[in-house]
Fold this sequence. Notes:
Elements (H helix, E strand, L loop, with lengths): L5 H9 L2 E7 L5 E7 L1 E3 L2 E7 L3 H8 L2 E6 L9 E12 L2 H16 L2 H9 L4 H11 L3 E15 L6
Antiparallel strand pairs: 1-2, 1-5, 3-4, 4-7, 5-6, 6-7
Amino acid sequence: MNLDASPVREFLASSMIARIATLSPKGQPNITPLWFVRDQERLYMTTRDGSPVVRNIAEQPEVVLLFDNERDAMRHQVLRLRGRAVFRMSRGILWRTVLRQLPKYRVSPAALRNLLSHAGKAITMARYYGERGAQGGVIEVTPESAEFLPRYRTDS
Length: 156
């Protein structure tokens, strides 16, 4: 599956959140919203090793990713990717993913405005991430198919 196909590439470039859908060992669905970055033909999301999504991937690596887009031309669609996921705890891949996330989520103008608006929570956030740093890892998804679906309105 080619993530460089123009509509898919454009949609992913302006999407901020991946909703990753997994199945528990008992077959219960779980949807987790995560930040994501793309590198080559894979998508990467950071999370902690004890999270439900990681436990589910260990048992059932097939996942579905849903992406929304707020751009005018794309806001009536949802991108659905199906693929296989694996959780990696290598420090190298974790730091590469975190560094790729910086421009998108931490140093863009909108991210800086958000950070400043929550400046009072900086110490609490630093403590939270510091306590969980050793538990972090990366979900690596290799997409196998992609399709655009209509976004259904719920405000009518």
